[in-house]
Amino acid sequence: MIPHYELRTRFEGEQAMVWDQIRKKWLVWQPEEIVRQQLICFLVQEKNISASLIGVEKEIIYNDQRKRFDLIVFNREAKPFIVIECKAPEVPISKKALEQVARYNTILDAPHLLLFNGHQWAFLSKNSEGIFQLQPKGWFE
Fold first, then answer.
1. 86: which strand partners?
2. Domain that holds residue 100
3. Total domains in the fold of the chain
4. CATH label of the domain that carries residue 25
5. CA 21, CA 11: separation in Å to the nearest integer?
6. Residue 23 falls inside a structural domain
7. Rounded distance, CA 80 to CA 91, Å?
């Protein structure tokens, strides 16, 4: 799994906040947000992905509805490489979550999908026929 990273935090009154290094702003401390920020640290520090190649909570239009994906990693040609769906630690990685990220990917067309809740993960890659397959070792190893 990924290491634990010390995140920049502060309080605004009674509200705990966490710093988002990609969007350069303070966000409300919520379980899903902490998972997202921990994963961003992993991508930048362990996978050596430039922060400039990571998008956070960007809006897309799917079936005439506005949707927001959690994270995206672009390749050096600025094409989607991995679409990531983060869940709070108590939310299991499920078929429903996979369907959610797959819907987003019909617009984004990335070759990889990642689901992560801080404890569990699923990493899928397109095969030569364009079908996503679960990668048993995943991307964390």
1. 116
2. 9-134
3. 1
4. 3.90.1570
5. 17
6. yes
7. 26
